[in-house]
Amino acid sequence: MTKVPFWQQKTLEEMTRREWESLCDGCGRCCLNKLEDWDTGEIAWTNIGCRLLDGDTCRCSNYEHRQKEVPDCIGLTPDMVRKISWLPPTCAYRLIDEGADLYWWHHLVSGSPETVHQAGVSVRGRTINEKGIDVEDYEDFIVVWPDQVPEGAR
Predict the structure, then answer these.
(1) Cβ contacts of 13 within 8 Å, gap of 6 or more
(2) Domain with 137 in it
């Protein structure tokens, strides 16, 4: 008898803290700075990573205290997953909430934290750190790839 994985049988609200945290695929896309048009709500992604984003691991370098160090860092909750329009299309939280399954490269499926990078989903090697970049210059760093599913990731 095959055991059904927790993400296929639980809602986001039903998950334990450990299960919730394990859903993060480590892509780092949500840690990219985004620009929002106040009139239309349209989101423009940049390749500028949060100052706490480790560009090699694609993880937060101070996860436990990130919201103290970066006041506009948004902590995900099931409600926030439903409200945030900019979660990447590959985001496990978004996928589970929408009733979809995880992609083959997600570490809970593949068994390896490296497959997110191998599939071209992560931000590894594609970002610059926000330190030293003026917010007025963010428009010079707009990219479209964070809002797309790479071919090799399907």
Answers:
(1) 78
(2) 6-145
Asked whether residue 152 is domain-assigned, the answer is no
Q: Does residue 10 lie in a domain region?
A: yes
Report the relative pairing of strands 43-49 and 128-129 from DSSP bridges.
parallel
pLDDT tens across 64-101, in order?
A: 999 999 999 999 999 999 999 899 999 999 999 999 99
Whole-Å CA distances, 101 to 49, 91, 121: 27, 11, 16
Place of tokens 């790479």: 150
pTM, 2 dp: 0.92
Residue 152's pLDDT band, with cuts at 50, 70 and 90, is confident
Residue 122 token pair: 């992560």
Contact 53, 60 (CB under 8 A): yes
CA distances from 92 to 37, 50, 69, 130, 138 (A): 26, 20, 25, 25, 27
Is-contact 27 116, C-beta < 8 A?
yes
Over residues 11-21, the pLDDT tens digits come to 999 999 999 99
